[in-house]
Amino acid sequence: MNTQPIGIFDSGIGGTSVFKEIHALLPHENSIYLADSKHAPYGNKSKQEIIELSIKNTEYLLSKNCKLIVVACNTATTNAISYLRATYDVPFIGIEPAIKPAALNTETKAVGILATKGTLSSELFHKTTDLYSNGIKVIEQVGEGIVPLIEAGKTYSNQMKALLRDYMQPMIDANIDYLVLGCTHYPYLMPLLLEMLPKHVKIIDSGLAVAKQTKAVLDKNSLLNFSSNIPENIFYTNTNVSVLNDILDKKFIVEHLNF
Ligand code: DGL
Questions:
Q1: CATH no. for 6-95+207-256
Q2: pLDDT, averaged across the chain
Q3: In what helix (H) or strand (E) does residue 254 lie, and over which residues does it extend?
Q4: What is the pLDDT of residues 37-95, one digit of tens each?
Q5: For a pocket test of ligand 1, which of 74, 124, 210 has the largest count of ligand atoms closer than 8 A to its C-beta?
Q6: Is 77 in the pocket of ligand 1 (CB under 6 A)?
Q7: What is the distance between the alpha carbons of residues 43 and 118, in angstroms, rounded to a whole number?
Q8: Quick one: which of 27, 41, 36 has its CA closest to 55?
C-alpha cells in the first residue's frame, strides 16, 4: 500500500477529462494535477519544446513525491513519453488517440480523427495508424484554435461552433462512423459534437483506457492506495484559477502556482 500521490499533467485544463476517469476508478488515490496553461497550446510547438516542457512538469511532480505520472496530453505523450521513460525511474502512463478500436469496429470503413498538429505529425501516431488503417479511410483533422478557446473558457461559444462545423464537414461527407478525439481537451466538446454529427457516428476517446491502465500499473508495482481516508486531489495552474474551477467539482482544491 502506498499513499503517495499520482501526478498528472497536461498543457492546460484538458487533462482533467482524464483525471475524472482516474478518480472514478481509483477514488482512494491522492493526486496532484499540473495545468501548464501558460504554455498552451503544446500542439503547435516543436518536438524539442514539448520534451522540455514535459521535463519541467515531470520534475515538479517528482519534487512533490508522486509515485506514478500520467501524461494526460496526447501531444506530450506522442512526442515526449519515450524520453521521459528513459530518463526517470517512476512509471509513466500516456494517452494516445484511440485509432485501434475505431479501425477495428468501423462499418463504413471511414474514421475521423481530430487532434493537434503535434500529435498528428508525430512518429508514434503514424506508426499506430499505419498498423491499423489497412483498407480504411482515415480523415485526419488538426483542431487548430480549439485548445485556446477552451483555455479561455469559450468552449460553447459561437466561434467554437463555427470551427467545429468546418472540421466536421469533410468527415461527414466521407461517411465516417467513428470520430476519435485525440486531445484530452476535446471530450469537453461532446455536447456540440453530438448536435453536429449524424446519429450513427460514435465518438470515442482514451480517458477510460488510461484510467484502467493506471490502475493495472499501480497494482503490478504494489503502489495502490487502500486507505479509507478522504483523498487529497490538488490542482495547480500557472494562469487564472477560474477556468479550472469552473470544470471541476467544488470539493477539489485549485491553486495558482508559478511554474
Ligand atoms: N490536451 C492536449 C492534448 O491532449 C492539448 C495539446 C495542446 O496544448 O495543444 O493533446
A1: 3.40.50.1860
A2: 97
A3: strand 253-256
A4: 999 999 999 999 999 999 999 999 999 999 999 999 999 999 999 999 999 999 999 99
A5: 74
A6: no
A7: 5
A8: 36
Q: Per-residue pLDDT tens for 160-198?
A: 999 999 999 999 999 999 999 999 999 999 999 999 999
**pLDDT > 90? residue 130:** yes
What is the rounded CA–CA span in Å between residue 75 and residue 227? Answer: 34
Smallest CA separation from ligand 1 atom 2, residue: 73
What CATH number was assigned to the domain covering residues 99-204?
A: 3.40.50.1860
Bridge partners of 256, per DSSP, are: 237
Active-site annotation holder among 53, 80, 95, 183: 183
**Phi-psi category of residue 109: left, alpha or beta, with phi > 0 → left and psi -120 to 50 → alpha:** left
**Secondary structure (3-state) at 55:** helix
**Ligand 1 atom at minimal distance to the Cα of residue 119:** 10
What residue segments make up the domains of the chain, in order of their start? 6-95+207-256, 99-204
- 66 included as an active-site residue: no
Task: Say yes or no to pLDDT of 97 above 90.
Answer: yes
Is the C-beta atom of 206 inside 6 A of ligand 1?
Answer: no
Q: What is the largest CA-CA distance in the chain?
A: 52
**Is 73 one of the annotated active-site residues of the chain?**
yes
What pTM was computed for the model?
0.97
- Domains 6-95+207-256 and 99-204 alike in fold: yes
Evaluate: CB of 187 within 6 angstroms of ligand 1.
no
Banded model confidence at residue 228, pLDDT cuts 50, 70, 90? confident
